[in-house]
Amino acid sequence: MEVPLSLFLQKHPFVQSQTHELKHWNSIIKHHTKLKDDVAILTTYTQMESLGILPDNATLPLVLKACGRLQAIEKGKKLHNSISSTNLASDIRVQTALVNFYSKCGMLQNALTVFDEMTQRDVVSWNAMISGCFCCYEYQKALHLFSQMQKENLKANSVTIVELLQVCGELLELRSGKEIHGYSLRHGLFNTNPHVDSSLMGFYLKFDPWIASLVFETLASRNTISWNTMISGYINHGDFLKALKLFILMLNEGFKCDSITMLVVIQACAEFGDHGLGMQVHQLVIKFGYNNMHIVNSLVNMYNKYADLKSSYELFTSIPTKDVALWNSMLSCYVENGLINESIHLLNKMQLEGIKVNERTIVIILPLCANLSNGLINGKSLHAYAFKIGKERNKHIGNSLVNMYTLLNCVEDATKVFHKMKDIDVISCNVFISALANNKLKVQSCEIFTKMLELEIKPNSQTITSILSAFDGIGFLKFGKSIHGYVMKCGIEIDASLNTALTEMYINCEDESTGMRVFEEFPYKDLISWNSLLSTYFKNNQPYKTLLLFHHMITRVKVKPNFVTIINILSLYTHLSNLPQGKFLHAYTLRRFSSLNYDLPLVNAFITMYSRCGSLEYAENLFNVLPKTNIISWNAMIAGYGMHGHGDAAMLTFSKMVKQGFTPNRVTFISALSACSHSGMIQKGLQLFYSMVQDFGITPELVHYNCLVDLLARGGFLNEAKYVIDTMPMAPDAATWRALIGGCRVYSDTHLAKAAFENLIELEPKNPGNYVLLSNIYAASGLWDEVKSLRLILENKGLKKPAGRSWIVIKSQLHFFAAGDKSHPQSETIYRKLTSLLTFVKEMGYVPDLRWVLHDEDDERKMVRILSHSEKLAIAFGLINVSGCSRILITKNLRICGDCHEFSKYVSKLLRRTIIIRDATRFHHFVDGLCSCKDYW
């Protein structure tokens, strides 16, 4: 409802009665100008307009400025039209105000038209036009205007210089900036105006802090602004130590800090990482009385950088009246530290105290949903709230929603959000392209890239990096090359990340030579580049090239590895079961990094390596001496015990973890359920599954149901396992059916195996291993016609059965064996040793089990096959080359066969040697005629 004019005038302090006199209206506008109340200025002008009263040349510029600040384009244009036939149209102050208004509203051409029509132009007019060009990103035009201004013999003032230095800074025109500097010196504008001095320093800081420091040192009189500029400059260049030293010098020279000084110094302390210095700065804040919300916010974030969450929280709680920004900062601290429950509790508390959630809050909380058992429900609730407050299409919230749905594997929802967003920018596109690429949706990611170009959104290096990650396989090489060409053509800066992405794309698309050339020719390779390349070779199943590259990196190129490098190489040694090299790497790491025990991700990786390389005792020793553990440490130990068949130890570790206050997560239950499955602890596994849901509130995922199916199927409860598959709330995947078929093999249920196989090949029709699974079950049951039929299908489909291989590490060298293999240099010795072993173990009672020969042949031929399995060859080789009583560790890429399992038991008893075999699913420790799996495998 509009306030009556009479009532409005009565309330105003300057007007005692209703009057149409211009001076009173002018006084009202000036009063609102002092209060910086632009809305009131325009309301007053509207009332004047209705009475047919125009402001004069003193107040009209004030109205136009208000229009510019409020982006009231139509009102401003209407005002311009209303004065076009009056004397005001030629008034220099009014014309300057019009130039300013049009520039602020992005209508540069209109501003230039007014400027060109001016018969008189003073320095203020020129400044307005130069400033307008700067606001509209027409930097070259601004410099051209300055040249014209000089031709008209007008002397620039401090405002002109400040604007021009900003222009030169945006253009990165060092030479032009130096010319402006020279102009300032010649006309006495330097060392007389603090804004010019600070602008000069700010300009040079874009290029070289050293030049800026020379300007700073030549200042006749420094003030807080100049000190702040210089300190901020060092921070922006990442030189936090110099920034802090300058701050100390500022205090020593007796200059007074202001709140801006404290803000930038707190930032420097946070980035420099000196906890003690940060606390001293905090004391100065208290001493100087700068306790505004911005500074408190910065201190909370600083303590979070120090991982001092306690100080962050104490500071947060010490503030009686907190704004939403402070609540958001504390929430961000909890989220960044992975404190999920605390984050949820703080969010609830925030709402209970009546603090209204804003878009920043939603952006902070959304990533948290991926770690919650009911994350999708919570994420959708936040989505609904964003919709309710009209922020659903906000690009920051939209980007976070896309990211959240992607993390929860809801790509369809992410797609809907993206296509509803308005004002998408390069960041929005990057987030969505990355989401699609991570989900292997190559075509869709290419379509979004094309859409970007259509919308004239210029891709940056991050865009290219994201889209390249989707390309693997020779079929995408052509498109990858075209992207590379686009980068070169458009002059997109190739930084280390983009160069790495291009290298990986070529290698993933089977053009290794081009990929390595791209990598080697890049002059600014950093450690991250090397780590990524190592990871790429490893993911492309090229372990030897990975190791060669690692040795080349540390010996020839002299690049010092970091923890990420070590973890990458550890993954390789873990994959190959190369325990000797794993131990060497452990020793190297201890020499290289004295603080190993304090880097949990690395120690956890070593625990995993030792567990998966057959040395569970080393893993236990590392775990037991850790000064601090996290959930990943406990999960690694539970998984290790499970793989080695120590189900009781796994359950005991699980109990200890819970007693020490750690909340098990989804991974914990995967490891624990798998441990129960490998140890035949069916009842315990069922109780664990129930506890996961009822006691810990974790909604079972497909992987948990797969563990449950495996548990029941291995235990002989095949019908119960099938019932789980039929009643679980999601569709089974290939792993589900393989778990059921595994149980069918143990208990020779060919009927159920066939039904499971039919579902399996619908999901993975081109996986030869699936056909082999059923073929083995038929072979074990003597159904040779069915075996032949399956092999014929494999041939017709052009699929090859995966070759079984076993390998053993001797003196850091890997030795591989296949069934019937005679390619090894020691082949004759190996077969002689094997023949000798067979003679002795047969005398002990070993009888070859020909059911494990999966070919329809006579018994004599079957005997030849079974006695030359890869596991037996590796055992014979190990006994020849591993001296003394040292244990023999063998790795097999497939599941160990039943006959080799029995043979290994007899050999361990015969020679009193420990033989460890890691197959595709678990470890088997053969000691004195017994296996750790208790024949439950």
From TrEMBL:
Tell me where on the tree of life, at the top rank, the source sits. Answer: Eukaryota
Query: What InterPro entries does UniProt report for this protein, alphabetically?
Result: DYW_dom (IPR032867), E2_motif (IPR046849), E_motif (IPR046848), PPR_At4g14850-like_plant (IPR046960), PPR_rpt (IPR002885), TPR-like_helical_dom_sf (IPR011990)
* GO MF, any single term: RNA binding
Family assignment from sequence similarity: Belongs to the PPR family. PCMP-H subfamily.
Record Gene3D superfamilies = Tetratricopeptide repeat domain (1.25.40.10)
A Gene Ontology annotation in the biological process aspect, one of them, is: RNA modification
What the entry lists under Pfam families is as follows:
DYW_deaminase, E_motif, Eplus_motif, PPR, PPR_2, PPR_3
Show the PROSITE patterns listed in the entry. Answer: PPR (PS51375)
Repeat listed as a keyword: yes
Alphabetized UniProt keyword annotations: Repeat
Give the organism, scientific name. Answer: Lactuca virosa
Domain named DYW: residues? 845-937
Q: Which NCBIfam families match?
A: PPR
Would I find Methyltransferase among this entry's keywords?
no
PPR repeat start-end pairs: 122-156, 223-257, 323-357, 425-459, 630-664, 665-700
Q: Output this protein's name.
A: DYW domain-containing protein
